[in-house]
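Most newcomers find our protein records easier to grasp once they have seen one. To make this concrete, we reproduce a full record directly below:

===
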Amino acid sequence: MLRHAAAVTALAVLVSATPARATTRDPVRDELRRTVAEDGWPGALASVQARDGRARDLVAGVGELGTRRPVPVDGQVRIGSNTKTFVAVVVLQLVAGRQVRLDEPVETYLPRLLRGDGIDGRHITVRQLLQHTSGLPDYTEHLDAGDSARLSRYYEPRELLDLALASTATFAPGTDWAYSNTNYVVLGLLVQKVTGRPVAEEVTRRVIRRAGLPT
C-alpha cells in the first residue's frame, strides 16, 4: 500500500506490439512524470500491456511522502471515483432486468431516505442520480480536507448521506448539473435495497469478474 500518498494515478494502456526504437520517447512514462512534476501527485504507476501479451511496469515519484522510497510497481492505490462507473453499470443492468426504472423516483426504492431543505426523494429520479442532475449537495464539502486521517477512515454510506442532507439542495432536480459524490452513495444504497446484497458484492459479481479484472 502506498502510505501517506495523497493520490496516485493508475493507468492501463494497450500499446502496439511493434517495438519502439531506443530513441523514441515513452509517452506513458512522460505522462507519469508530468503528473508528478506538474499536477502535484506524490507518485504514479502504470501497467502497460502490448498486443502480444508482454507487460511492463512504469513508475514515477515516491511511494511515501518525506522519503525517497520509489513507488512499488505492484503498489495498491485507492480506486476512488472509478467505482462510480462500476455502480452505474450495475444500476443499468438492473434497469435492463426491469428491476429498476430510470425515470422512477428514488422514493419508490428507498422510501423517505431523501428528505431535507429543498431535497425530496419523491422528486428525484434514478436517471438524475446517474447524470448528476439531482441537485443533491456533495458530502465532500463537509469533510475536512486538511485532515489526513479521513483518507484511511471508513464512512458508512448513511454517515456521508447525513452530511449532505444537512445542506440545502444545490438546485431543483433536473434544472441544472453539478457533480456530487452523494448521487452515487444513494445509487449504492439503491442497488443494495433492490438486490438484497452489498453493493461491493454486486459490483464484483456483475462487473469485475465478468470483465476479467483482478480481485
Observations:
- Strands lie at 8-15, 43-50, 55-61, 115-116, 119-120.
- DSSP finds seven helices and five strands in the chain.
- The chain has two domains: 1-78, 82-208.
- Residues 1-78 form one domain.
